[in-house]
Write a structure and sequence with these properties.
Length: about 600
């Protein structure tokens, strides 16, 4: 155990984590040449978008300068705020973290958030200034920010260029010297943490584990602590770009266990695996469960695919345990699931993964947040779907979730960011100037205002220089109303939304106008209305498609024409009574794109 080092790389998005991981893989001989690719970002979506979505693990042998052979277990983590949960899981399996800072960008919002996560987890942090080869590198400024904003000593920082390999050998030596070896007792009963898992069609659920005490080998009996179910271990091993079987995993090791767990619901990330011989072994404490921030309804395009969608969600949840889902049904869309995500990008990526990896055809509804509705009897109801809101007469008040956002921005864009934040009902908490080149703004926002397009607009108004990180900050009473949308006098529950009273009418008009263009014309007039309670706040009518019934009348008496028109009118009336209007998928996404 003395010669094992478990560490992860944490940083803001695009600061070079995956490139540094490539260089370390090359230097330790795991791969010979990377050809400029991000090897650990193996998912098609990761390559397309240039971001890390999944934390990846790899075990590397390394001969250090002191002549000893070491085992380095690296976990590469995502940088975007929406995948913050992946980072917290990785930290739980490590003793140390490389905190990567882009020399041309300096300390950014997510750098601070990830550093705080690592400090709270009690990890040894090695600050690393990356991209020192760039012309715009501001190494001295980055070192000063390291001390001012993170409280880490600039003397401990290492200067590297992950792209061309400068300083990476020294970094490997620092990992061996500075990061402590894992603590644990090989002779104690087995205790290991599940920090990730995935589903294999032939071998069932394969959990990724960090062994804290004891050892596990093929043939052993193990117990999943939370369910109490027992399984026989078929195989154990390590991650070396692929699964490499081993004799056993012991205290300090990071690896995988194959135990033919067929049911996806048996394994939960954050759970503890213990030995079948010692069922009283306590669970490993300190693992943080994810808190869903954004919810949306996901429905299969064909009702026959409901079972397949459920299986796909269960398998995806193994790979991404930040997803939470439960069954729900909608009058407009049939049976589906209410799915919880950590943010909008997380939602977008999850829906795309369901479509690509699991070949699901889906309809996704408008994202919403969890509101706390207090009724007149004083009971609190947590409601994540606007269609489940009680009648306005039964509501005493509504509380909405608030987030505290840290925004780091150059001074010249502060005015534009403040204006944008004000339009999203933001309340300024503080404004600091850590140095002359950046301003740290702290705002409280209603989560519902930020989930849709705030991040994109922040990047636009700051020309890409602003960075943002947020955390949940409790509930606050708001002046909120639920807006219903009626198409052809039928309530479309999937289009209902909650908005602040002052913006509800404006949003309702914009949505109705948008639906006018999206819903196909019928052979009868279709009214589209937005309503608050029983009050209609906006209305548009889709004009009917008309057949020219007078085309065959050339000349003749006017009464003949009138008779044909009356007959058409009667037919339209009858059609309207039995006609159904299909609302297309684009309509459900239109709420996202309402420009205020």
């Amino acid at each position: 155990m003395e010669n094992i080092r478990n560490f992860c790389i944490i940083a803001h998005i695009d600061h070079g984590k995956s490139t540094l991981a490539d260089r370390i893989l090359e230097l330790t001989g795991i791969v010979h040449t990377t050809g400029g690719e991000q090897i650990l970002d193996s998912m098609e979506l990761e390559r397309e978008r240039g971001i890390t979505i999944k934390a990846k693990t790899v075990r590397m042998p390394y001969k250090a300068g002191d002549g000893k052979d070491y085992i380095l277990n690296l976990i590469d983590t995502p940088g975007h705020v929406d995948f913050n949960y992946e980072v917290s899981r990785s930290l739980q399996a490590c003793e140390g973290a490389l905190l990567l800072i882009d020399a041309s960008q300096g300390v950014e919002a997510q750098t601070i958030a990830n550093a705080n996560l690592a400090i709270d987890s009690g990890l040894k942090i090695i600050p690393v200034i990356n991209k020192i080869d760039l012309q715009g590198a501001q190494i001295d400024d980055s070192l000063l920010q390291l001390e001012a904003m993170l409280g880490l000593s600039m003397d401990d920082a290492l200067l590297i260029s992950a792209k061309n390999g400068t300083g990476v050998v020294e970094l490997l030596e620092a990992i061996v010297v500075r990061i402590p070896p894992p603590k644990g007792d090989e002779k104690a009963p087995l205790s290991c943490l599940i920090f990730d898992s995935y589903y294999d069609a032939y071998r069932g659920v394969i959990p990724h584990v960090r062994v804290f005490d004891g050892s596990v080998a093929a043939g052993d009996k193990i117990i999943i602590k939370s369910t109490g179910k027992t399984f026989d271990v078929e195989e154990v091993g390590y991650f070396c770009m692929r699964l490499i079987p081993a004799q056993k995993l012991q205290a300090g090791d990071v690896g995988y266990i194959v135990a033919l767990v067929r049911d996806a619901g048996e394994i939960h990330v954050g759970d503890t695996i213990i030995s079948g011989a010692f069922p009283q072994t306590p669970a490993i404490p300190g693992f943080r469960h994810s808190q869903s921030m954004v919810f949306c309804g996901i429905y299969p395009l064909s009702t026959n695919d409901y079972g397949k969608l459920q299986d796909s969600l269960q398998k995806l949840q193994l790979n991404d345990s930040a997803i939470a889902f439960e069954k729900e049904s909608s009058a407009a869309l049939g049976h589906g699931f209410r799915v919880g995500f950590l943010g909008m990008l997380h939602m977008e990526i999850t829906i795309e993964r369901l479509q690509r990896e699991y070949e699901q055809e889906l309809i996704a509804t408008v994202p919403s947040v969890v509101y706390k509705v207090v009724n007149l009897k004083g009971n609190e109801l947590l409601i994540d779907n606007p269609s489940k809101f009680p009648a306005p007469a039964e509501i005493d008040h509504i509380e909405e979730p608030i987030i505290r956002a840290r925004i780091i921005v150059p001074p010249e864009y502060v005015g534009a960011v403040m204006e944008l934040s004000l339009s999203k009902r933001g309340t300024m908490v503080s404004m600091e100037h850590p140095d002359g080149k950046r301003v740290l703004l702290v705002y409280d926002f209603p989560l519902a205002e930020v989930i849709t397009d705030y991040y994109d607009k922040l990047k636009s108004v700051s020309r890409g220089y602003a960075s943002m990180d947020y955390q949940f900050n409790g509930y606050k009473t708001g002046d909120l109303v639920k807006v219903d949308v009626l198409v052809n006098n039928d309530l479309v529950d999937a289009l209902s939304y909650v908005a602040a009273s002052e913006t509800a009418v404006r949003k309702g008009r914009a949505l109705v106008h948008k639906l006018l263009k999206l819903i196909p014309r019928q052979q009868f007039k279709v009214p589209i209305q937005a309503a608050i309670g029983g009050r209609i706040i906006a209305r548009e009518d889709i004009a009917p498609i008309r057949k020219d019934v007078l085309a065959k009348c050339y000349g003749g008496d006017i009464s003949r024409k009138r008779k044909l028109l009356e007959k058409q009118k009667e037919g339209k009336k009858k059609m309207k009574m039995i006609g159904a209007v299909e609302v297309p998928q684009e309509a459900f996404l239109s709420l996202l794109k309402i420009e205020e």
